Amino acid sequence: MALLFSPFTLKGVTLRNRIVMSPMTMYRSVDGHANDFHVMHMGARAAGGFGLLFPEQIAITPDGRTTVHCGGLYDDSQIAGWKRTTDLVKAMGGVSAIQLGHTGRKGSAVAPWEGGHQISADHPEGWTCKAPSAVPHGADHPHPVDELTVEEIKGIHEAYAAAAVRAVEAGYEWIEMHYAHGYLGASFFSPIANQRTDSYGGSLENRVRFHTEALDAVRSVIPERIPLTMRLGADDLHPAGATMDEAVAAISLMKEHGLDMADVSAGFNTPEMDGTPLGQPMGFLSRALRVKREVGIPVGVSWNLGVPANAERAVSEGLDLVFLGRPALANPHWPVWAARELGHESPFDLVPEDYGWWLKNFRGHAPSIGWPEPSTIDLDASAESSAQSTAAGVPQQARHQSTATAAH
């Protein structure tokens, strides 16, 4: 059996396979609440065979959202809606995970199909964003931001803890902290965004203090069996930004504060990135594997792992979890497709037993069942084509992918 379909255990939670639906902002919430859309979104992928499923970044405060249409767990009234999704995911054999975060200086925006740009505080749906320093993100996020006071930082840590308590009550069995993609955690880590001169800025240890204190706050209020992980913007891909060397050291510090796994991604702390691997198959895999080797912690990664053979190769090289964003949107049954591609002896065992019985007992014309026959993909040619397409720099779409950055 392909390693991609082997179980994975972390703390007191065992996943049926290594396939994760990555957090993706859907812009479907009203006042932070989940609704029928989220139940459909999560349930379909759980029935499709994903092992671990995130809805989206869930805001810990109202001003921690990207837009006013984003999900939150900053109020007790929001618990019931999200529990509808976790109940269904569990019934379908999956495990529900939640990514808690604060968008920081990339909040107060409109949906990406409306331009994705930031709106001013005097707009009916806008607000003044908070950040480590009074440094706007730039490009389509130009508006002034307020530097957080130390008291406000402590308040954010309390909000993380309160949201984590609500998450457990809502049925989540896995908690991830969002420290990537230009959001607040990423901003504190990056010298581009963090220009503070107090105990939260300057040295690497100071720039990671925000993260370790947030981890401490959450770990103290959740059951020990629940994994506590984080997604880190490990590389700003900019000469003045955070580097992989710093990321390895930072993750080592976080491990001392209860971190159980690292989900390695990009910083997105500036619209001007150099040498980006965003268009390359398995573009961040080498960074994640370095973290695993040097820190001794399980790792996950996303970015261009949607070809089943690439996902399997990544796990065979040591990756613990494969995060899929857009592939999960494109194909809610991606695990079944991958199983057929990789020669799984019984791909339809991945779906609920009623689905599986009918699919395994198909008596008609085999190609008409609705599943494509396994294909042969020239991975080397695919990699060469991707490299050529990004040789001139970051694609324009990726440069301005400021809101739905988890959907990869």
From TrEMBL:
The keyword Oxidoreductase applies. Residues 373-408 are annotated as: Disordered. This is 2,4-dienoyl-CoA reductase-like NADH-dependent reductase (Old Yellow Enzyme family). GO terms for molecular function: FMN binding; NADP binding; NADPH dehydrogenase activity. InterPro entries: Aldolase_TIM (IPR013785), OxRdtase_FMN_N (IPR001155), YqjM-like (IPR044152). SUPFAM superfamilies: FMN-linked oxidoreductases (SSF51395). The keyword Ion transport does not apply. Keywords: Flavoprotein, FMN, NADP, Oxidoreductase. Pfam families: Oxidored_FMN (PF00724). Its cofactor is FMN. Residues 4-342 form the NADH:flavin oxidoreductase/NADH oxidase N-terminal domain. Residues 398-408 have a biased composition (Polar residues). Residues 382-392 have a biased composition (Low complexity).
